[in-house]
Write a structure and sequence with these properties.
Elements: E1 4-8, H1 12-26, E2 33-39, E3 42-48, E4 53-57, E5 61-69, H2 72-76, H3 90-102, E6 112-120, E7 125-130
Antiparallel strand pairs: 1-3, 2-3, 4-5, 5-6, 6-7
Length: about 130
């Protein structure tokens, strides 16, 4: 079960509390671990039970995903070098790198099941995509 979310709030002081409520509401079972990251006026969250549900933050991007990609090795080949992300956010970090290289067109390269939300602080844009 996917549980990713993103919000934008004009009041940064209220952002974390609002995001915690939204992300917490995605936790359908007590075993789900709720994580969130905030940056200026936006934040992403994930209620995770499985390793495919991840969150990643770089100086430019926030990414939350639930992704079971069939072509991760191929996708990693598109990146010049990949830094090892903290924790178990390897797929979310990969998606961030692909976005930085291909912009929104990175989604067309993904094969498999996924839901992803992304906040680009530099561009001040929020993006969401799911496979169907």
């Amino acid at each position: 079960m996917s549980g990713v979310c993103a919000i934008w709030h004009e009041n940064p002081e209220q952002l974390a509390g609002t995001l915690a409520g939204v992300a917490g509401g995605l936790a359908l079972v007590p075993a789900a671990q709720v994580q969130q990251r905030v940056d200026s006026n936006a934040g992403v969250g994930v209620a995770s039970r499985f390793p495919t549900q991840q969150i990643y933050q770089s100086p430019r991007l926030l990414v939350a995903c639930d992704a079971d990609l069939l072509n991760e090795d191929e996708l990693r080949g598109f990146l010049e070098r990949e830094e090892e992300p903290p924790g178990n956010a390897r797929t979310a970090a990969l998606l961030a790198g692909l976005y930085e290289r291909f912009d929104y067109g990175f989604v067309e390269k993904l094969r498999g099941g996924f839901s992803v939300v992304l906040w680009d602080q530099r561009e001040r844009k929020m993006f969401a995509a799911v496979s169907i």
